[in-house]
Fold this protein.
Amino acid sequence: MQRLEAAPIALDVWPHPTPPPYPILTERVRGCQGLLCLLTDRIDAALLSAAGPDLAVVSQMAVGVDNIDVAACTASGIPVGHTPGVLSEATADLTLALMLATARRLIEAAADVKAGRWRTWDPMGWVGPDLYGATVGIVGLGRIGAAVARRLQGFDVELLYHNPRPSARAARVNATWVDLETLLGRSDFVTLHCPSTAATHHLIAAAAFRRMKPGAILINTARGSVVDQDALLGALRSGQIAAAGLDVTTPEPLPPEHPLLALTNVVVLPHIGSASLSARLRMADIAVDNLLAGLQGRPLFHCVNPDELQ
Ligand code: DGY
C-alpha cells in the first residue's frame, strides 16, 4: 500500500477484511486501468467487460491464477501478472509441517494434552508412521514440488514424482518419474503440487483413493479442486487412507460444521502455505511491480498469458 500510495495513480481500495462480493467488484472496477486482486476474487469475461476498454493490467498477489479467466484476459489484450518463486520455500516448509503433523498426530495429541486426556506415557499412545525412510510421491514437480523434494533429502525418503512429462528438476533431487497409478500405489505420503486446471480437477478421486496404500497420507497445499473432497471423506472414514493434511479445501473457508473437521486424522489449515512474513511481503512487492509495469505499458515481471502479451 505504501508503494501504491506513493505512485502517481488514483486508488480505489477495498477496505474490508473479507473479499468484495462479485457484483460490487464488477461495479467498482468500471473505468479502472489496473486491477490488483487476490485469489479470492473472480476475474471473468463479464467483469472485464464491466471494467471497460481502459483496463490495461490484472495483477494477482498469488502464483495460482485459477480464479482468473486468463484466456478472456488474453482475448482482450490484458496481461495478467502473478508472483511465482517467492512463495515456494514457505509453501514447502508448510508441506513438511503437514506431513509431520499428520503422521505424528501432533494436533490430536496437543488437543488431548489440553483436554486432560494425557494420563500416562502409553507405549502405543499417539503412534503413527515414520516420515524418515518412507516413500513420498510428489504430484507436480515444479518449483514448490522441487523445494519439498530438497527438504525431504534429509529424511532419507524414496522420492517418486508424476508430471505429464519427466522434469529436468528430477535429477537434482533424486526423484524418479512414474505414472500416477504407480505413484499412488507405492507412496506412503502423496503430496500435491500441481496447478488447478481442467486436467487436474478431481485428479485425486475415488479411483485414486482405492489405489493408495491403506496407511497412506495425503497432503494438499495446491488447490482444493485437485481433490474430490467427498471421495476423500469416504476414504478417510473407511480407512482406505490413514490421514490427510489440507492447506486448501473446497470451499474456502471450509465451514466449521463440515464433516472433515470432525475427523481426528485430518489437519485442515486456512490456506497459509505462503504465510511467512517474508514471502507475503515479496508477493505484495511483485504484485505492485506487475501492476505499475502494466499501467506504464511495459512488460510485466511475471506474466501468465501466452507469449504474445509478454
Ligand atoms: C498462491 O500464491 O497461489 C498460493 O496459493 C497463495 O498462498
About this structure: The two ends are 26 Å apart (CA to CA).
